[in-house]
Amino acid sequence: MSRKSSDSKTRVNRRFVLKGAAAGGAVVASEAIGGFPTVWAQNAKDITLVHAGGSYAAIKEIGEQATKDLGFKIAMQAITDDVQINRSLTQPNTIDINNIDSTKLPYLVGKGVLSSIPVAKYKLWGETVPLFTKGAYPNGQMASTQGLSPIEAMFYVDKDGKKLASKPTEFLTMIPTIYNADTLGIRPDLVGGRDKVTSWKDLLDPKYKGKTALVDYAPVGVMDVAMALEARGDFKYADKGNMTKDEIDKTIKIMIDMKKGGHFRSFWSTFDQSVNLMASGEVVIQSMWSPAVTAVRSRSIDCYYVPLKEGYRGWFVGLAPMAHLSGLKLDCAYEYMNWFNSGWQGGFIAKQGYYSAVPTTAKKFLTPEEWDYWYDGKPAAVDIKDPYGTIMEKKGATRDGGAIWDRMGNIACWNTVMDEDRYLTRRWNEFVSS
Amino acid sequence: MAMTEQAVDALLAPTAVRDAEAAAIDSGAERASWLQISPLVLVLLLFFGLPMLVVLAVSFFDFERTDIIPTFILDNYIDLFRSEVTLRLYASSLKFAAIVWLVTLVLGFNIAYFLVFHVRGVLVQIGLFLLCTVPFLTSNIIRMISWIPFLGRNGIFNQALMGAGITSRPLEFLLFSDFAVVVAYVHLFTLFMVVPIFNSMARIDKSLLEAARDAGAGRFRVVYEVVLPLSKTGIALGSIFVITLVMGDSFVVRTMSGGQSASVVSALQNEVAALQYPPAAASAVIMVIIVTLMVAGILRLVDVRKELAR
After folding, report:
1. Is A106 touching B (CB cutoff 8 A)?
2. CA angle at B148 for the pair B146 and B153, rounded to the nearest 5°
3. Fold of A2-180+315-363
């Protein structure tokens, strides 16, 4: 069996070399989506790639569609953050395609578990939004670099992938897939109207005492409070995404005082909890994810994802091939990653409220009305449905925050892992237990 | 949680060994006893002893962001003992353990007493006993989470109180509070008290009660001087279950307090989520020692082995 597979490997490799030479190494995968050359399709059909990531990204339907479109199998595994890092580091062979969010990179880079991606292998790089390719918005303005910004996370210094480069190189850390802008969610009916909350500082307003919640996860929870404190004018952080011990102390102290005063009603750790807190009215203002806001609204309860004047907290996710891949399997991995951003997936997750790194392809898989609603921030011309066909917004509704670059173009800080994360975890435990 | 349960097993095991030694008069019988306990010893060594040793070893390691560095440092323990958070966490866990223990004991004792001494007819007795266990056929999580809509600000209970004109505003302390945590614990763990106490009481010879009554003891004196001492084993076993379950919990405390309260294990979980294994291991080692001491204390007060052999 081993002889047979090594045979097929060399054959494919030779084919690739020939083809690569002929095509100048550029458009290796372009024809693959339309159908494989028979030889390859025969060999690839036994291949299974394990795609592991968070439940919001590693979606079963996407794996099924990929399996249908490509000549090989994709096994989707939705796992939790700590399991993902653990498996990536201690059993890297159990994952083929690692669907990582940017904040996992600091844990994984330089450990020899991820493999760098030569830009030439990714044919959609030219169509990728400039946020990832140049760190800039389409209008040319540079994006915020507080926290771990795309430009600081996308590139390796060289092929070995030992160190991140903070400027474009020929080697990618991951293929960027989805991203979004997070902010506070509110219950307009319980705070007195949509215009009552305009700034992050409202999160700490004594008015909402006993009716606020934070996510029970130190790096994000502390950053949301930091946004609020800065907006309130308490102090200015050098970098909210990489606080000093002193800044952490100052922030946690205020948080502990507020907690003792009963300001927070709850700290949520799962998506469902955040939805239920809001829907039941236990909480009227809290940090939230975009699909959670939609989930509250789908219960006919008004919930608003407020565009705040200080801007959003941004995040992004990508696919990275694992270092153990080689030969045919690696070729399939590239093939899959190219497929991933070729449109079907982008159209699917657009209906969850997330943006695709290659919106031009996603557009082909959305109706013009859907595109106008999700990407252009225009009022819905028809009822808007989620990926599973359930109506989630009535005709006439507008996306909170508006068009893609009104939202993504206004990122104040990116999700990150701080240098002082060990200290941060300790202080967070102190906060929770106080 | 599993860790503390295993700790109980480990504690019971050596006593079983001693028992076997005492019983063995000649070496042949002794060898047979050793053989009999060897499967248990093997399982314990493999699945409790070995992992515990690993945890112990890791607790002395150093770490960076993702790397565990095998050296020998005491920093993890020093951090743990220096931090007032540790004290606060143990105080909080012990507080919950004490309250829940007391409540489940009172409930458990009374329920068991009713079942054993008031219900006539074994069939009805068993029937009622099984009825007690019915809620336990559903998942722990569901039973706990169903309290949330019940106790919430706009929950059924608050609406009922306001509807009846008892309160004018919703009571906020009902949910996401220590109160909610205790309610859930009591609901989840009372059965662990009922079963062993029921078991002990069922073994009490009814003629003892009659004799006490004939000798002029009142109802409460009978309970206090006859039933209570003879149910000691059940109470001890129930207490071990309840206390170790509460001490080892993180999920109930996190969910029912809405993340407002912490327990030793929930803090440990935060460390694990941040990949900080060595301090988490140190915390686990201290936890095992403390819970073991608590269980040892209970076993010192009541000789469970002797009572069970009765």
Report:
1. yes
2. 145
3. D-Maltodextrin-Binding Protein; domain 2 (3.40.190)
